[in-house]
Amino acid sequence: MADRETRAKLARVAARLNAHSRFAALLPPLVLMTDDERLPDPARAARALPRGSLVILRARNDARRAALAETLGAVAHERDLFLLIAGDPTLAARGGADGLHLPEARACEAAHWRALHPNWLITAAAHSAQAIRRARSAGADAVLLSPVFATRSHAGAEPLGTLRLRLLALAAGIPVYALGGIDARTAPMLGGANIAGIAAIGALSV
I want to staple 82 with a disulfide (CB 3.0 to 4.6 A). Which of 91, 98, 167, 177 is the partner? Predict the structure, then answer.
């Protein structure tokens, strides 16, 4: 659980990064990723976000995902947040979400869903330059690149580190969010990375 000052610092860093990127006017700077294990109360965390932030709803269980979509949809409307549903375009359309987040293996679906929902914001997970290229070719609006630092979400995975992040973001040709191990301590290390913003789970918990 992160305290108010920690969350506020993360938001400030994200806003600065976004303002200095080539995509500043296009995308929210701060992204909350929900997680079945690490974020027990995503609605509470969403309510603590700055207005205009983005929430990506991830839930393995269909019933829980549908219930959270309704709850988070109401929070998003109240707080002027953007809400994406991960991996479930049917629910995203039915619930009036702002778009869809695709896992890396399904990034190629972005073109299909863009054709059906031209106004959707569509993001995709990426862990490599090849994955970024696939998402860009499919027409995704942005990728969430991870893990930048060591994180519980990718236990055992070798972190990209800040230099690799900068190189990938520079060559991406698509907005990149940094994800993985980002908190108030590590976020300032991302300066100069030309990224659209940062995404986090635990560092935005309440």
Answer: 98
